[in-house]
Design goal:
The complex is a heterodimer of chains A (300) and B (322). Chain A has 2 domains: 82 residues; 180 residues, MetI-like fold, CATH 1.10.3720. Chain A is 73% helix and 0% strand. Chain A has 15 helices and no strands. Chain B is mostly helical. In chain B, 72% of the residues lie in helices and 0% in strands. Chain B has 17 helices and no strands. In chain B, helix 5 packs antiparallel against helix 17, helix 6 crosses helix 17 and helix 16 runs antiparallel to helix 17. The N terminus of chain B is likely disordered. Classes of the chains: A mainly alpha (300), B mainly alpha (322). Chains A and B meet through helix 2, helix 5, helix 6, helix 7 and helix 8 of A and helix 2, helix 4, helix 5, helix 7 and helix 8 of B.
């Protein structure tokens, strides 16, 4: 790109007409280069806080708290040692395990319930299936705070306050509508002839689901599971209201870092990085599926 | 409504939409025959589960909002009062939180949408390292929201060792201004962090929209001598309208429910308490169940109004896509 720009001016003198054409071309090349550069600058600005979080998590507490920042200070794992309870004794493992349980179990249940539902909404649609679809979607627009109080009272009455199983059930309800929408959009892409062939061969519902649908939409199932996992892993409001010690999830554990506690920036950054890592890895690995999930399958 | 316009999508793909014959069978034959039930069975577990878990709690909220239930006075529960709603609309603190919820949502959504559109247009061009820049752009959205709020509170905004003041010192030396960002500009601080997290979301959806523009028509426009600006104003923008609406409305739904950043960064201080945070506080600190429920009902009604627009947009995309 840059070499072409440098050699271009000498050729411009050739003829009036050609020079005009070339000048236009050169101008657009220069603009292209500038816009590419601008994209890089903006990209770096946006990723910088994430990079800074990672870098600071690998600095000593002393080097993390300097002003101006010491970008090139030696790296250490002390922040992570502190996060994992080296001196405080408070281990983040129980909350992390709770988060894994809540996210993974709820995601599995969501997928198991959503596949048959998506089937009944696309392959052999029930009557008024669009109404059902929009009912599912409308529940996503019901803010969690709208049902928070009764959930709290119910949990308190039947004794499931601070119980991870209750959180699993709530996360299942939270993500099921999204999963139904997404899986339906994948199912709708399967050619209808395939189902007709299966029906002629005498395959029943369970057989059709197992040997035709699941294999074909497995990339779609993976994308759906990814989105459900991320939403469950990130959730704070419900977990913060309905759990306290035993069933505390990772985001609730993070809230213990809300108030400053002397020199603790490296530890905070280590905690934020450690808790975000599963989402970062899953999200980067499945970038293309992300947009499909976020738009509930409306954008492909 | 939606059913009138969107008939079974699968069949529309290749052949024109067949006009649906009106079902004249009586109700019990239509709904209670064996075949209909067989079709409905796979749907029922999910549907029943979602109804129980989402509709019943909200109904309960609605009922409780008309009571004066306070956990501190458990013997004096009475139904049939509008006091809670009167309080919601007359208490200046609550009114302020309603206004801040609107201000926060509108600002964050509009600014992220504008940034998102600009960045999506940049990323839609061919340049060296485009994939890398796209990956970098996604990163903020993949940080767990509480972690992102902690990161901005402590590592970016902190007046003594935060990155912003650190960079100011680096540039201007010892006499650099060192504002206490969260105390001095509490609302902007929260908005800044949320815009950072939500711009990638908008970018992703808008970029997908740009890439779904019909290539042959765009080429035809160029052959016909349409300039960059003309193509953008007359072809790209009309095509993008739906994606802008979709991104804006989905963003609105998420940000109107925003709790994590307010809870983490300011705990609702300095005029940054939005409705979700206020409800959480009424429930937790004041133990006023009736009032908390009335607040919840208000948020839900506000969201339903926005959701109606979203559903309309989605259903038009839904038809176009098939």
């Amino acid at each position: 790109m840059t070499t072409a720009l440098a050699s271009a001016p000498s050729k411009l003198a050739a003829s009036r007409r050609a020079s005009n054409a070339r000048a236009r071309h050169l101008g657009s090349r220069r603009a292209n280069f500038a816009l590419g550069l601008l994209a890089w600058v903006i990209g770096i600005l946006f990723v910088f806080p994430v990079f800074y979080m990672l870098l600071t998590s690998l600095h000593s507490e002393f080097n993390a708290a300097t002003n101006p920042p010491s970008f090139f200070a030696p790296l250490t794992l002390d922040g992570y040692r502190e996060f994992f309870g080296a001196s405080s004794g408070a281990s983040p493992w129980p909350p992390l395990i709770n988060s894994v349980t809540a996210s993974v179990v709820s995601t599995i249940v969501v997928i198991l319930l959503a596949i048959p539902a998506a089937y009944a909404l696309s392959v052999k649609p029930v009557e008024k299936w669009t109404d059902v679809m929009f009912f599912f979607l409308s529940t996503k627009f019901l803010p969690a705070v709208g049902g928070l109080l009764p959930l709290y009272i119910i949990a308190k009455t039947i004794g499931v306050l601070d119980n991870i199983n209750f959180i699993v059930i709530l996360y299942t309800a939270m993500n099921l509508p999204i999963a139904v929408w997404m899986l339906r959009s994948f199912l709708a892409d399967i050619p209808v002839e395939l189902f007709e062939a299966a029906a002629i061969d005498g395959a029943g519902l369970v057989r059709t689901l197992r040997s035709i649908i699941v294999p074909i939409i497995s990339p779609g199932i993976a994308a759906t599971a990814l989105i459900c996992f991320i939403f469950s892993w990130n959730e704070l409001l419900l977990a913060n209201t309905l759990t306290s010690i035993v069933a505390q999830t990772a985001p609730v554990f993070l809230t213990s870092f809300v108030t400053s506690q002397g020199l603790f920036l490296a530890k905070v950054c280590a905690a934020a990085t450690a808790v975000s890592l599963p989402v970062l890895i899953a999200g980067f690995a499945a970038q293309d599926k992300l947009v499909q999930g976020l738009s509930l399958g409306a954008v492909k | 409504m939606a059913t009138a316009t969107a008939t079974p999508v699968r069949s529309e793909k290749n052949e024109p939409k067949p006009s649906k014959p009106k079902d004249t069978r009586p109700f019990n034959e239509r709904w209670l025959n064996k075949k209909g039930w067989l079709r409905r069975v796979p749907l029922l577990p999910a549907l029943v589960f979602v109804v129980i878990m989402t509709q019943l709690p909200f109904l309960a909220t609605l009922v409780v909002s008309f009571t004066n239930w306070n956990a501190n006075y458990p013997d004096e529960i009475a139904f049939g009062t509008l006091q809670n709603f009167a309080t919601v609309f007359t208490d200046p603190g609550l009114r302020a939180s309603v206004f801040f919820t609107i201000l926060l949502t509108v600002t964050v959504v509009l600014v992220s949408l504008a940034f998102g559109l600009g960045i999506a247009l940049l990323l839609n061009r061919d340049f060296l390292g485009r994939g890398a820049v796209r990956t970098m752009m996604i990163a903020p959205f993949l940080v767990v929201p509480v972690a992102a709020a902690l990161l901005w509170k402590h590592a970016m905004y902190n007046p003594e060792y935060g990155l912003f003041n650190g960079v100011l010192t680096q540039i201007f030396g010892a006499s650099a201004p060192q504002p206490d960002w969260i105390t001095d500009f509490p609302r902007l601080a929260i908005m800044g962090e949320l815009i950072w997290q939500w711009t990638p979301f908008m970018t992703l959806i808008l970029l997908a929209g740009l890439q779904s523009r019909p290539g042959d028509i765009m080429e035809a426009a160029q052959v016909d001598g349409a300039g960059t600006w003309q193509t953008f104003a007359n072809m790209t923008m009309p095509h993008m309208r739906r994606y802008l609406e979709l991104a804006g409305l989905l963003g609105t739904i998420y940000i109107i429910q925003q709790f994590d950043s307010v809870f983490t960064m300011t705990a609702g201080a300095y005029g940054t308490a939005n409705l979700p945070y206020t409800i959480y506080q009424t429930l937790y600190n004041a133990q006023d169940y009736g009032l908390a429920s009335a607040q919840g009902v208000i948020v839900v009604i506000g969201t339903i109004i926005i959701a109606t627009f979203t559903l309309r947009t989605l259903s038009s995309l839904f038809e176009e896509g098939n």
